[in-house]
Structure prediction request, 746 residues.
Amino acid sequence: AALENSRTLNQNKRTTYIVHMAKFRMPATFQHHSHWYDSSLKSVSGSAEMLYTYDNAIHGFSTRLTPEEARLLESQPGILSVMPELKYELH
Amino acid sequence: TTRTPQFLGLYGNADMFPDSASKSDVIIGVLDTGVWPESKSFDDTGLGPVPSNWKGACEAGTNFSSSICNRKLIGARYFSRGYEATLGPIDESKESKSPRDDDGHGTHTASTAGGSIVEGASLFGYANGTARGMAPRARVAVYKVCWIGGCFSSDILAAIDKAIEDNVNVLSMSLGGSISDYYRDSVAIGAFAAMEKGILVSCSAGNAGPSSFSLSNVAPWITTVGAGTLDRDFPAFVSLGNGQNYSGVSLFKGNPLPGKLLPFVYAGNASNATNGNLCMTGTLIPEKVSGKIVLCDRGMSARVLKGAVVKEAGGLGMVLANTQANGEELVADAHLLPATAVGQKSGDAIKKYLLSDANPTVTILFEGTKVGIEPSPVVAAFSSRGPNSITPEILKPDMIAPGVNILAGWSGSVGPTGLAVDTRRVGFNIISGTSMSCPHVSGLAALLKAAHPDWSPAAIKSALMTTAYVQYKGGEKLQDVATGKASTPFDHGAGHVDPVSALNPGLVYDLTIDDYLGFLCALNYTESEIKSVARRNFACDASKKYSLTDFNYPSFAVNIDTTQLASGSTVFKYTRTLTNVGSPGTYKVSISSQSPAAKISVEPAVLSFTQMYEKKTYTATFTVSSMAAGTNSFGRIEWSDEKRAVGSPVAFSWN
Prediction:
């Protein structure tokens, strides 16, 4: 039971992902890319919120997702990749 | 910084870097731990109005007012959403939720790149002189992305996003992560977008040397900077009871040791812990170290922390001995007690005495600051080394710059050791790392950008690389402190940066966005991976041959697969295109190769340029014989018109 609980916890644990979007493939029904990003995110998670929306460095956003939500998002149209956040260190 | 401007030849060459308006309009963005805006390095005296194209802001937050920026420090932002999402809300009693630097690292790097001129700078009298950034009239914008718990890629990406929007000209990032493909690496991806906007991105190579394959930030659109020493040292001698003396280094300032020999003990014999020799917290037995000088071995914990541990246990002083991991590299620290660092050989000799004498004694003699140390520069042992583990066809690091014992601005909220117990406060601190060499190059790139506003980031990088030097004035090759022997392009890249020569290289290896897209195609990246990096609807042309060997990089890496090497020799052909950025000239090639197993020829051997921005292509042919896997050899291709020389290192690797 403890193992099962642990698995469930891990499955529900959210970590940060950076989502790369194919901005040039934005459906015409959206007036602004941020609305499209938001809609894509909402399609896999009702509660996840965007940390940042990126316009210049990448096209996309960062958010907190469970592994399952990340997997689902990756299969949505217009999503190029869903990358786990990395930690960097000072040199 | 003090000394590095002289060391780099920036003094006495003021006429080569005219004090033009454009020079002060160059903006250096620094992603780091924030800034201490009250530092004298950010005094804006004599600077004109903030550049009209600047779109940045000075964001208010904990202990930081939006009005604190000025005409030098023109922007300050902070990015913490990713950090807080992972580690919880920032504890504002420990770190400022604002651009304020509570660490010192960010103030040091920002002032190194673009700090104003400050007379009478020193750390406790050490390294005293006039401090200045490499581009003292450039403007500085700070983006705080690193916190006590680290630097998170969602924050880094947000900062790069903003820096591009704000209109910085140079981005300086003294940070790195684990080795990963470019399309997974936020620094590489963000740097690509910055490069595309004409922003030169300079990054630290990492401090994982001297191991091979230890580099960070190896994307070809990034300028990757390793570290070398200066001609300056801070000697502090170990004088043993047997009359022997050993040289070390120290930045200690405080109550001196009694003017006599003191009892001496090896930490490993003053502890019950198995790693007692390392002077880890709580491992020393006070009764065994009290009133004595303690020899600790380097490793596992911070050097300055070992000093604090000895002091806490009642020790009077410390000798910190390098082990094999660090060899003879000496890094000076502002210890809390009289202490000096010695190399492995000295450390071994001192331990031999310590363990053989029934009543060993010692004292430490502090000699202050010495300049004119030779040879210099030498490659720092900690500086990360090639080959490039992501793309071996691109030789990295690109160059080295001063990164050992660098004095620059510091945060007022932390002592020079960074330890909580260190209540001292200093305006300047002396620290080491490729973090310190990176902003040197960022500042120099800003100087070049001011002098040549129309040059691309690739052209600026080419100028810095191809004019870097690989020999001392006497003709001997640059040395590597890790081996005590000549360093190689895997250690120093194209060599040590020489900004005065870089100002007028004559020729550059330029690269456009199409070249970089072709590079990604040559890597066989998928369409989705390329789109993630390049942010555009781009697909590689299936009918086109994309080649890494023809990518117009200012250096060469030849990788030989020994399992596929034909008997006899194999030929590799690389093409390069040089662009004239100087007066008309006829350049002749000169070639050198270390090994007869790696022959170099260049066709044509003479290139004549009559017009500005004229381009000429040449082919370098590398004829390689069989060697054992794991062998490396090096060579050089240099174009010269007698007045100027443009050199490229060649690295051969048999794998």
About this structure: The CA atoms of residues 7 and 25 of chain A lie 37 Å apart. Chain A touches chain B at residues 15-16, 18, 20, 22-25, 51-52, 54-59, 62, 64, 80-81, 83, 85-91 (CB under 8 Å).
